[in-house]
Amino acid sequence: MARAGLSTGRLVRAGAELADEVGFDQVTVSALARRFDVKVASLYSHVKSSQDLKTRIALLALEELADRAADALAGRAGKDALIAFADVYRDYARAHPGRYAAARLRLDPQTAAGSAGVRHSQMTRAILRGYDLSEPDETHAVRMLGSVFHGYVDLELSGGFSHSAPDSQQSWTRVLDALDALLRNWPAPT
Questions:
Q1: Domain 8-184 -> CATH class
Q2: Residue pLDDT, tens place only, 96-117
Q3: pLDDT band (50, 70, 90) for residue 184
Q4: Which end of the chain has the least Cβ crowding within 10 Å, N or C?
């Protein structure tokens, strides 16, 4: 019988909090059981394994990020939309580093197709419509934006920009200005 008060949703939220505290790689069913002061076996009626728990945390993080991004994009277009979207990723990563790492967990194709990751792609493409890119350039631009956002955030979170001036906020602003300029002047294929 499941312990009163434990549910899959509660365990996943607690796992997400744990990820933010100790790092996503450190999240296991055992660590979660210790958090609730229960035996590991009692959690297996809610999650199948540590990998199942991590997948559920990833899905939660993708959903949270997609909801925040949708709110930030409402009524915006062009450069304003690009900046709002990028800032959501950066702000989320700073506030929830473990969940942010979880959002990048590689999912199997079926799980990925049913996740909020699809919404992220759709929102990115919606932003790019303001830059009038056609395929395959739109796909190239989606990949570029993801690479820049995630790469910058990873370097910033690991302290890569903390050792020199200017501060990382100034660089972030300039990077977004440069991305906007590039998207407005997308080069022709060679």
A1: mainly alpha
A2: 999 999 999 999 999 999 999 9
A3: very high
A4: C
